[in-house]
Each structure stands twice: as C-alpha cells, then as structure tokens.
Amino acid sequence: MVYLAYALLVLGALALAVTIVAVTRRRRPAAAAVRRGPTAVPAALASRRDDDDDDGKWSSAGGVVYNAEGRIALVLQRDRQRRLRWTLPKGRIDAGETAEQAALREVHEESGLQTRIVGTLLVHEGPRHFTHYFEMQLVRDDGTHDRETKEVRFVSLKRAAKLLRGGRDLTVLRRFVETRTRVRGDARASG
Questions:
Q1: Which end of the chain, N or C, is surrounded by fewer C-beta atoms within 10 Å?
Q2: Of 158, 183, 185, 189, nearest to 74 (Cα)?
C-alpha cells in the first residue's frame, strides 16, 4: 500500500513537471532576452551578504512558501510594464543582510507570512542581479502585507504553474517540485 501511494506521488510529480515544462516552452522569450538561468548553489554564495558583491550586480532573495496542505503562496503585484501578475514573493537584500535573512524579511513584508527556511532551491543569475530562492514553510499568516502586493493567495502546484507567467518563477517552481519529490523533470525527457 505504501509503495502504491509513493508511486502515485511520483507520477503526480512527473505530470506536474511535464505541465510546467510545457508552459515554460510556450512562454520562452526571444534569444536576446534569455537570462543565464539558475546556477548550482555553493554554500558560500547561498549565504553571502549583499555588501560582499564585487561584480556590480545587486542581489535579491525570496522563496516558495507552502502551507500544511502543500499549497503554494503567490503574490499579485505589478510588473515593470505596470501589469498585474502573479509571482513568488522576493525582494532586494539589504546591506549587511544574508540571503536567508532577506528572504524571511521580504516574504513577510510582501505577503504577511511568517516562515521558516527548509532549504535552498537555487540562485538565478540575471543580467543585473542574483536572486536567491529558498524552500519556505509557513509558520503563521499575519494577514497584512505591503502596498506593493495587491493580493496573497495559496494555490495548488498545478494552479501555480498556470498563474505564474515568468520563466524564472516557473523554473523555481519546477525545482521546488524536484526537491520535494526527488524526481527531476528534465525537459528533454518529456519530448
């Protein structure tokens, strides 16, 4: 019985990974706009302080917050073109602050959610900055958030894959699924 439950969990994770890959492929940006993407996370980089940054890039931090039911927290915010879009909570690392400290602070400010960090997901390197993403478990919902956020919503993984529009957010969500299920959703394997 345990093996059947585990097999169903793995199959569900694979189906979700294929869905995320398909959604990511439909939204692929033009070649000139492609960012370098996620990188392996050396321990020194995962906990580095923003004031240690000597390459001219700034850093931000955030994460995938999940509740006891396994639902994911998304925030509704305006993008650079002033359009409303669902995204993962994140923000800039302040001087003297570690990526972990910034992730906890930014997630709380943007969503009103008190969390604890479970692990590191990845570090995304963009043309102007690094974004550190963590797996975060909900501790408490304070019910208040900053003015930047219009709404906070907990949704299923499948719904999150549909609501998230950014390729980076979808990559982080896929990494979260891989981490939680220990199953890799390889885009090449899914056709």
A1: N
A2: 158
Q: C-alpha 57: how far from its chain's center?
A: 20
Residue 52 pLDDT more than 70?
no
Q: Which domains does the chain have, with CATH numbers?
A: 36-170 (3.90.79.10)
Residues contacting 75, CB < 8 A, separation 6+: 86, 87, 88, 89, 110, 111, 145, 149, 151, 152
> Does position 20 have pLDDT exceeding 60, yes or no?
no
What percent of the chain has pLDDT above 70? Answer: 68
| Predicted pLDDT of residue 183 | 78
